[in-house]
Design brief:
Layout: E1 4-7, E2 19-20, E3 49-50, E4 55-58, E5 66-72, E6 83-86, E7 89-92, E8 98-101, E9 107-114, E10 120-127, E11 133-139, H1 142-146, H2 158-172, E12 177-181, H3 182-185, H4 193-197, E13 203-208, E14 211-217, E15 225-229, E16 232-233, E17 256-260, E18 274-279, E19 290-300, E20 305-318, E21 324-348, E22 354-382, E23 385-410, E24 420-451, E25 455-480, E26 485-489, E27 497-500, E28 518-544, E29 551-574, H5 577-581, E30 591-600, E31 604-610, H6 614-624, E32 629-630, H7 632-637, E33 640-657, E34 660-681, E35 689-713, E36 716-727, H8 731-734, E37 738-741, E38 746-749, E39 757-770, E40 774-786, E41 789-798, E42 802-811, E43 814-827, E44 838-852, E45 859-860, E46 868-878, E47 881-890, E48 893-898, E49 906-908, E50 911-921, E51 926-933, E52 940-944, E53 950-955, E54 959-967
Parallel strand pairs: 3-10, 5-11, 15-18, 38-42
Antiparallel strand pairs: 1-41, 1-48, 2-7, 4-11, 5-8, 6-7, 6-9, 9-10, 12-17, 13-14, 15-16, 17-18, 19-20, 19-54, 20-21, 21-22, 21-53, 22-23, 23-24, 24-25, 24-26, 25-28, 26-27, 28-29, 29-32, 29-33, 30-31, 33-34, 34-35, 35-36, 36-39, 37-38, 39-40, 40-43, 41-42, 43-44, 44-45, 44-46, 46-47, 47-50, ...
Domain TonB-dependent receptor plug: 172-274
Motif (TonB C-terminal box): 951-968
Main location: membrane
Length: 968
């Protein structure tokens, strides 16, 4: 028997109401969430209080109410996450810098605003019998204050201001999160959102040809993490997984990334590992006009391909009070990427020997273009009412040519081993042209409304639509008519050698084979189209409460998510040699000398490469022939459609006792699914039977959570949380399709009865925020997962098919993920000049996982779990110069596993990268910048069981980029 398996609220929202505490320094209890943290107590500098004239107070608010906004002094950017206290009343500013304190008795008060990285501000406020007060507070960066002698020439440091924005949001957030602002992300040379997330503690990425694509949080499978834009979950263009392909979204069109690792009751429940929220920019985030633009060009070392990137953002405030904001942001990049790739597949034979059976030498040449557009409209009707409309469009187009020489090895001699042996070799030479076009479009219409002193209502209607179209996907394959004996030598397992025996016309070593050996085998044509649409609706209500704790709020709401998904796969083939002979050419006529030979890693020589226009020149007659036939089983059994409707309701309680805040609540989600597919059965000596199949399932989940936040001091915070979440099966796992591969006696099926995984999570953390600007933290996490999902392969007997290998989704019994995160970031302003421009950004994550396989077949690590991940970035930011050297490391992780032969489990090997970025301010508005990626020319390796069995060696070289940036 053979069995193998493979795993298949916007964050940062804060309470709108003030809280009363006997301790005037106790932050507005927004606290919660869980896990992660901060260790080490470092010396802090007591903040000096700025002069009161940096604020304005107007007595025009409603009686008993103090409202206001907080911004920084240089660019007029409003500050999210500032702590505002008013004689025991406390509030936290929102993204537009706004705060609201209600229930204030008439009198004279001192309002204090505290923001890490900025000077604390004290403002005198008078609340009358019939009127409250409106306050505008302006804070100065500690750097600006230090240079106050020449404020007109001060260039406030971009990276430290970016750190301040992120750290203050993280410090004051209701639930635990990691926040990275767009300005700080701009200091790293990242091409897309996936690559940006790898800088965050506990987050790692999976790559495609060296570029980040999927995100893994805390060692859990990529499907355990949800991705949203402004709280709207993204539709997914991938047909086989819920993991969102984040290489679609450029990194230049966002305001911040928010990673929530312990979810609260008002958040969607399908986030076992956490949620990544992409927050868009708003014109109301700052005073006046927003205008930014940049242009950069460079090269990729391998293949000398183009590397271009452009982006622009323009926005402004309108209306008599500047209460209308309109902003547009766009980004475009173009990359000419070349990749060297060599793959060897190892197989266990009946006598126990493990030996190579297939080799593929691949040259990838492609152009990737990435375009993102975001538009946002905000209308603040009055201080208590806001409506907004956000639209975003991200497109990723990848046009690729792949030259491939395939060596099939069989008839191994008796003395052959894994390292040295002799085989019969069969050679295929092919060219594939493939272009796929992915889009993700999201629309979000919503509002925020205060009613009276106690109530707040939020609502949102949204749609996210993703498509992925692959056309053309054409492939010419030529096969050698010569099948010689061949020696192989894998002593150097990264760079093996092959020597053909008994053929005087063969090369002495290597596989630069005579072109006349090859004859036409077939022309393949394929078309794929996938589409997913999610429509979302939610309404939330929140009011202050006094029956639990000294103060607090109660929040409840309803949520609906209606998702539809479909996939269409069409395949055609012409394998008629006479049709090809009618063209009057041979394979040699389709090869081009001016492209240069295939020369992977300057070692693997595979002869001339195919001309890039051979499909336009020679495919037409073959495709018009009657012999160009549809592959019916593949074309209909791979198609499916599915729907998933989720309706949810929740209640959440926030309560405060002096320095302790608790967030507790319960969420219920009801899921209804439907699936449609087609089975294809060919009985012996009978016509095929094509049968439509359908399935449905309804189930519900209760998701309780409790989060505790204890503030030892305003800058020392302990958090603990218990939360629950689910992971629904991928759509294709539950679609009722059946595909029979007669050649291999293999049946692939959907499993409509496979259950969702359910996780219990525990998180604890400690954070120590450092003055003037920094953080040291430690966090521990543990997740127990019931019914983890696997793709299982097992021998069985099925009606109509007989003895087969059945491949379908199955549930294991249980699994776990546990680990620790450490983080330290700090600016060293206290050092003497010029060393006061130094800073450090570093984090380390250890994760361990295991899961019990279906059918009692043992246990394995969860796919995607790297034991160690860490980042170390050294920065310098002074005198207009900003430089950052960033190192990222991810240890090996398992991709798929073989129960019968665990020594053939497939792993991605360790990978490290060193990147550098530098910029210099020419004027207050213009800045030159440059980036270098993969300085150490790191390669990517996959292997089967041990490093000496290299499944894939991939190299993509270094790249660089230089340009100019403008900011108003």
């Amino acid at each position: 028997m053979t069995k193998t398996f493979a795993m298949s609220r916007p964050a940062g929202c804060r309470h709108p109401f003030s809280h009363r505490s006997p301790d005037p320094m106790n932050p507005r209890t927004s606290a919660i969430a869980a896990a992660i943290a901060t260790v080490l107590a470092m010396s802090t500098h007591a903040p000096a209080h700025a002069q009161a004239q940096a604020a304005s107070v107007v007595a025009d608010a409603a009686a008993g109410t103090v409202i206001g906004r907080v911004k920084e002094s240089t660019r007029g950017v409003y500050l999210d996450g500032a702590r505002v206290t008013l004689n025991g009343y406390q509030a936290i500013t929102q993204r537009d810098g706004g705060f609201r304190i209600t229930g204030v008795a008439p009198g004279r008060y001192t309002l204090q605003v505290d923001y890490i990285g900025y000077e604390t501000q004290d403002v005198e406020v008078v609340v009358g019998e019939s009127r409250g007060a409106t306050v505008e507070v302006t804070l100065r960066s500690t750097v600006a204050v230090g240079d106050a002698a020449d404020l007109d020439r001060v260039n406030v440091r971009g990276s430290r201001d970016a750190q301040a924005l992120a750290l203050n949001q993280q410090r004051t957030s209701v639930n635990y999160m990691n926040v990275v602002s767009a300005d700080l992300l701009g200091q790293f040379p990242d091409n897309n959102i996936a690559e940006s997330t790898q800088r965050i503690p506990g987050v790692s990425i999976e790559r495609d040809q060296g570029e980040g694509r999927y995100v893994t949080v805390r060692g859990a499978p990529k499907e355990f993490t949800t991705v949203s834009i402004d709280g709207v979950q993204l539709a997914n263009p991938d047909s086989t997984t819920r993991g969102v392909e984040l290489d679609t979204i450029p990194s230049d069109v966002i305001a911040a990334l928010e990673v929530t690792k312990a979810i609260t009751p008002d958040m969607d429940g399908d986030a076992i590992a956490g949620n990544i929220n992409i927050r868009t920019q708003s014109a109301l985030d700052r005073d006046g006009m927003t205008l930014r633009a940049s242009a950069a060009m460079g090269r990729f070392e391998l293949g000398d391909g183009d590397n271009e990137r452009y982006n622009a953002t323009i926005g402004n405030r309108f209306g008599a009070d500047g209460n209308i904001g309109v902003l547009f942001s766009g980004s475009h990049s173009r990359q000419g990427r070349f990749t060297d790739n060599v793959e060897t597949i190892y197989t266990r034979f009946d006598d126990g020997r493990i030996m190579p059976t297939t080799v593929e030498i691949k040259d990838y040449e492609g152009t990737r273009t990435r375009t993102g557009i975001t538009g946002r409209f905000d209308f603040r009707i009055d201080p208590g009412n806001l409506v907004y409309l956000v639209a975003s469009d991200a497109r990723f187009k990848d046009r690729e040519f792949r030259d491939n020489l395939i060596i099939e090895m069989d008839q191994h001699t008796a003395d052959s081993t894994q390292t040295i042996g002799n085989v019969r070799a069969t050679f295929d030479k092919e060219l594939r042209e493939r272009t796929y076009d992915k889009t993700i479009r999201t629309y979000n219409f919503g509002g925020e409304h205060f009613v009276g002193d106690d109530w707040r209502f939020d609502w949102q209607a949204s749609q996210s639509k993703a498509t992925k179209e692959t056309t053309p996907r054409d492939q010419y394959i030529f096969r050698s008519t010569v099948r010689p004996r061949m020696d192989y030598d894998y002593t150097d397992y990264d760079f093996p050698t092959w020597t053909i025996q008994g053929r005087p016309d063969a090369p002495a070593t290597g596989v630069n084979l005579p072109e006349e050996w090859f004859g036409f085998r077939r022309l393949n044509q394929r078309y794929e189209y996938g589409e997913e649409t999610e429509k979302g609706f939610r309404v939330d209500a929140e009011r202050s409460q006094s029956f639990l704790g000294d103060s607090g709020t109660v929040k409840f709401g309803l949520r609906a998510r209606l998702r539809d998904k479909s996939f269409d796969d069409e395949r055609r083939r012409n394998g008629n040699a006479a049709d090809f002979a009618a063209l009057g050419i041979t394979m040699s006529d389709m090869l081009c000398s001016d492209l240069g030979p295939s020369n992977n890693f300057d070692y693997f020589l595979a002869g001339r490469r195919f001309c890039r226009d051979i499909f336009n020149r020679y495919a037409g007659p073959l495709q018009a022939s009657a012999n160009h036939q549809r592959l019916v089983p593949d074309s209909i059994t791979g198609d499916y459609s599915a729907s998933e409707d989720v309706h949810a309701g929740y209640v959440r309680f926030d309560a405060n006792w002096d320095k302790l805040t608790m967030v507790a609540g319960l969420r219920y989600e009801r899921t209804s699914t439907e699936g449609n597919a087609t089975s294809y059965l060919v009985p012996e000596n009978e016509d095929p039977i094509i049968t439509p199949q359908s399935s449905s399932r309804d189930y519900g989940n209760l998701l309780p959570s409790v989060h505790l936040r204890y503030e030892m001091t305003p800058d020392s915070i302990f958090r603990a949380s218990y939360s629950t979440a689910i992971n629904r099966p991928d759509f294709m796992q539950t679609a009722p399709y059946t595909l029979f591969n007669e050649e291999d006696s293999e049946v692939s099926q959907g499993n409509p009865d496979v259950r969702e995984a359910y996780a219990h999570s525990l998180d604890v953390s400690y954070e120590r925020y450092l003055r003037p600007l920094g953080l040291v933290s430690v966090a521990a996490f543990y997740k127990r997962i019931n019914d983890p999902l696997f793709i299982a392969t097992r021998d069985t007997t099925l009606d109509d098919y007989g003895d087969v290998q059945l491949i379908r989704a199955e549930n294991g019994e249980k699994g776990r993920v546990q680990g620790v995160e450490l983080a330290w970031q700090q600016t060293f302003d206290f050092l003497p000049a010029p060393f006061d421009g130094l800073g450090i950004y570093t984090n380390y994550t250890y994760a361990d996982s295991s899961a019990e396989l279906p059918f009692g077949e043992g246990s394995t690590m969860l796919p995607g779990t790297s034991r160690t991940n860490y980042n170390v970035a050294l920065a310098y930011d002074k005198y207009g110069l900003n430089a950052r050297l960033a190192y990222n490391h991810r240890s090996k992780f398992i991709q798929s596993f073989d129960i019968d032969s665990p020594e053939l489990d497939v792993y991605w090997g360790d990978r490290s990268s060193l990147d550098f970025t530098i910029s210099y301010a020419l004027t207050r508005n213009f800045r030159l910048f440059g980036e270098v990626n993969n300085i150490t020319d790191t390669r990517q390796v996959r292997f089967q069981g041990e490093r000496s069995r290299v499944l894939e060696l991939e190299g993509f070289g270094r790249s660089w980029l230089a340009g100019v940036r403008y900011e108003f």
